[in-house]
């Protein structure tokens, strides 16, 4: 099947109300027709996600904003112009026509125009919006390749469009524009600085009236193997001690592995690190070690989104299948 035939098959599946694996530049999504309540419910069932956690609606063009959102503020148009297609999700007041199942019953909707060429082609030819969360079981590590999605869901998601490795590697930045002040609910591929250059000062983190975002739960993006986040010297000490106790320890280091360390290395550049992060966590998790030790990245703005994911992954790491 060439890419065109794969897209045709995906459109037919979506029109039948099925759920497909969708490549995007951030991570892979589990997509269904956002206008079809039964299809969207299927996403929740497959993912094991609580029904009150809203999904992002993916659209082909910024022109579709007004179809999904009400009273679209000028800040939304400016951000869309600057960063779409790309790794930015906007939270806006929803149109009454947006199904409740998509928004978890909230009066806002998350909208994103993804940059991946396959996703764009699919969206243009499909015509409607696609509701899609990341294609991982709830609370677990997000997928950055078609194979990750197949590993995660097998026969439950027979059609996965293969768009290669996701470029960015971590989820989109979420900006809430539904309240008084713009607010970053989830850091991601687009930095606070980039956003402030376009719309001025933004708040960070969820406010008292912020909508719920499961990507902002304390425990998320987590491997099954217990995981600790440590500075380089502490990591080397801990690895030595754990090995002395007979434990199998997997390391995720930056730049180079410590002497006689066993594990994986990610680049010293924050963007390149983010690109490889989830694949590395999946590989390490599959080794069945007793413990994962992850080197803590520098405390600078460039690493903010990576820090966010690592902190939640460490908080959620647990051998239980039904961890949050
Ligand atoms: O990069 C991404 O955003 C990926 C790709 C597939 O597009 N999608 C993704 O979806 O990360 P998901 O469902 O795993 O995370 C979306 C986050 C969730 O934390 C959800 O609660 C939040 O966005 N969200 C969606 N709609 C919202 C809304 N109306 N209000 C507040 N948060 C919302
Ligand atoms: Mg997710």
Can you give a write-up of this model?
This protein is an alpha/beta fold and 324 residues long. The protein folds into 2 domains: 3-204, DHBP synthase (Alpha-Beta Complex); 227-316, Rossmann fold (3-Layer(aba) Sandwich), CATH 3.40.50. Helix content is 34%, strand content 16%. The chain contains 11 helices and 13 strands. The chain has helices spanning 3-15, 37-47, 65-68, 74-83, 100-103, 117-126, 146-153, 192-199, 232-244, 270-286, 304-316; strands at residues 20-22, 29-33, 56-58, 88-93, 108-112, 130-131, 173-176, 183-186, 203-204, 227-230, 249-254, 263-266, 291-295. A 9-stranded mixed β-sheet has the order 1-2-6-3-5-4-7-8-9, sandwiched between helices. Strands 10-13-11-12 form a 4-stranded parallel β-sheet, sandwiched between helices. α1 packs across α6 (117-126). The longest helix has 17 residues, at 270-286. The radius of gyration is 20 Å and the shape is globular. The two termini are 38 Å apart. The model is unreliable at 320-324 (pLDDT under 50). Magnesium ion (MG) is lined by residues 133-134, 142, 215.
What distinguishing features does this structure have?
four-stranded parallel sheet; alpha/beta; binds magnesium ion; disordered C terminus; 16% strand; 11 helices; Rossmann fold; binds threonylcarbamoyladenylate; 2 domains; nine-stranded mixed sheet; globular; DHBP synthase; 324 residues
């Amino acid at each position: 099947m060439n890419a065109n035939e794969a897209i045709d098959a995906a459109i037919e599946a979506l029109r039948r109300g099925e759920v497909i694996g969708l490549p995007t530049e951030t991570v892979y999504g589990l997509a269904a027709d956002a206008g079809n309540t039964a299809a969207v419910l299927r996403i929740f069932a497959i993912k094991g996600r609580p029904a009150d956690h809203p999904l992002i609606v993916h659209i082909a063009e910024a022109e579709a904003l007004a179809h999904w959102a009400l009273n679209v503020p000028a800040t939304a148009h400016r951000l869309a112009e600057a960063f779409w297609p790309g790794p930015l999700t906007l939270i806006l007041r929803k149109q009454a026509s947006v199904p409740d199942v998509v928004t978890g019953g909230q009066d806002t909707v998350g909208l994103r125009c993804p940059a991946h060429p396959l996703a764009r082609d699919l969206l243009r030819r499909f015509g409607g919006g696609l509701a899609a969360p990341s294609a991982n079981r709830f609370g677990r590590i997000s997928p950055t390749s078609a194979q990750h999605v197949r590993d995660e869901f097998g026969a439950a998601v027979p059609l996965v469009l293969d768009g290669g490795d996701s470029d960015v590697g971590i989820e989109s930045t979420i900006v809430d524009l539904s309240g008084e002040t713009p607010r970053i609910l989830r850091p991601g591929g687009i930095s606070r600085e980039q956003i402030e250059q376009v719309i001025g000062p933004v708040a960070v983190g969820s406010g008292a009236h912020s909508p719920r975002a499961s990507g902002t739960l304390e425990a998320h993006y987590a491997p099954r193997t217990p995981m600790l986040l440590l500075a380089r010297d502490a990591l080397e000490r801990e690895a030595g001690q754990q090995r002395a106790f007979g434990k199998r320890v997997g390391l995720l280091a930056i730049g180079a592995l410590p002497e006689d360390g066993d594990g994986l290395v990610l680049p010293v550049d924050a963007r390149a690190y983010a690109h490889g992060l989830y694949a590395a966590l999946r590989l390490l998790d599959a080794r069945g070690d007793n413990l994962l030790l992850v080197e803590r990245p520098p405390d600078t703005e460039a690493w903010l989104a990576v820090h966010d994911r690592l902190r939640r992954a460490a908080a959620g790491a647990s051998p239980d299948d039904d961890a949050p």
